[in-house]
Design brief:
Strand order of the largest sheet: 9-10-12-11
Order of helices and strands: EEEEEEEEEHEEEHHHHHHEEHHH
Largest sheet: 4 strands, mixed
Number of strands: 14
Number of domains: 3
Structural class: alpha+beta
Oligomer: single chain
Strand content: 5-15%
Length: about 375
């Protein structure tokens, strides 16, 4: 994620800010410019110092769940992120609006990266293989977060921090966030769009395994028996070992974790020059959306170790409680080249570089 500033007063801003906390100016996000802009009223519309012309706010701005802008002649009531919503919770029910705001915060951060990477984002209203979201509340029967044929369902209870922590503990997960859910579930959608029925399928099977293995049986076996003992050497999470589809989705989510966090580190001009003989130095001064995989890994390994060390100094759990082994890095390289297929990236060269030069920087769990 980039850093943003109010063009009116210079105040540093978060991506989600609707109003400048310093000068009070209304704010709006321009996806094409990847910029949070200070707004000036122009009748029923708005102008910005970032882009010429007039804009209007997404229709969901009235609920304070969205600050994205739309061209007035677009014919859309909702922004590039909100127009994918098929079902939202009943806002008359106490607590639903607060939880939906948290859900939309995570979803908009997902869309920030999807747009920056140039991934296809048609809605289901536009084409049958498009994308849609249902945000549901369990009433009588449980709601399962998941993906099916382009429809991503999110259980609104995941926005309740206490409930999500209970689930995290019950499932034995070291890490569970709303943003993580979105990044995982969107991976299933892009597997259908970018891998299934394409020339990438054989490469996918070589990296992740044969997805034709019975999915339901694989999940039942995973929940009954747990992950194989050697899973940390081969998979990013225990759940990734359940089935190749889940391995891909977990790896995709972690790739997005890396890219977004590295962009934030670059925006802060972060340089790591630790007083150690270990290879933990890094200068994060590049755009991770455009970098090759070796450069991402060379920066990510020391950055995640530093972030974990800072968290431990505060008595907190590791920010990134995972160890990217060589096997995992090869899978990340597959995801990297998949999302960059239209940008001139060479998959074979990436895998060769990963195999040749990255093992020395992979740490062991502490």
């Amino acid at each position: 994620m980039k850093l943003f500033n109010c063009q009116n007063c210079g105040q540093p801003l978060y991506f989600e800010n609707h109003q400048c906390p310093s000068c009070g100016r209304r704010l709006g996000y321009l996806p094409a410019q990847a910029s949070v802009a200070a707004l000036v009223e122009d009748g029923d519309l708005w102008r910005t110092p970032v882009a010429p012309g007039q804009f209007r706010l997404c229709a969901n701005a009235v609920h304070e769940v969205c600050n994205w802008l739309i061209a007035p002649d677009s014919g859309e009531a909702f922004c590039a992120a909100c127009r994918h919503n098929r079902t939202i919770p009943d806002l008359a029910v106490p607590g639903n609006l607060e939880h939906w705001r948290k859900v939309e915060t995570a979803k908009h951060r997902l869309f920030y990266t999807l747009l920056r990477l140039g991934l296809p984002l048609a809605t289901k209203a536009e084409r049958s293989d498009g994308l849609a979201f249902d945000f549901l509340v369990a009433v009588g029967s449980p709601v399962l977060t998941g993906h099916a044929d382009g429809l991503i369902t999110i259980n609104l209870a995941e926005a309740d921090d206490a409930e999500r922590e209970k689930t995290r503990g019950r499932m034995g997960e070291p890490y569970r966030t709303l943003l993580g859910h979105f990044r995982h579930e969107i991976a299933h959608y892009y597997w259908d769009r970018l891998v299934r029925d394409t020339a990438e399928l054989d490469n996918f099977r070589a990296a992740f395994g044969d997805e034709r293995a019975d999915y339901q049986q694989a999940l039942q076996r995973h929940y009954a028996e747990g992950a194989p003992q050697d899973w940390p050497a081969r998979f990013v999470t225990a759940y990734a070992s359940a089935h190749p589809w889940e391995d891909f989705a977990e790896t995709w989510a972690h790739y997005f974790h890396m890219v977004d966090t590295l962009e934030t580190a670059a925006a802060f001009g972060l340089v790591l020059a630790p007083h150690t003989t270990a290879p933990l130095d890094a200068r994060i001064d590049f755009d991770p959306h455009l970098a090759d995989m070796p450069r991402l890994i060379d920066a990510w390994l020391p950055l995640s170790f530093a972030a974990n060390s800072l968290n431990r100094s505060m008595g907190m759990s590791d920010l990134y409680p995972f160890v990217p082994t060589p096997a995992m890095i090869v899978k990340l390289a597959f995801v990297h080249d998949l999302v960059h297929r239209g940008h001139g990236h060479d998959a074979a060269a990436t895998l060769q570089a990963v195999a040749a030069g990255l093992r020395r920087k992979v740490g062991e769990p502490m």
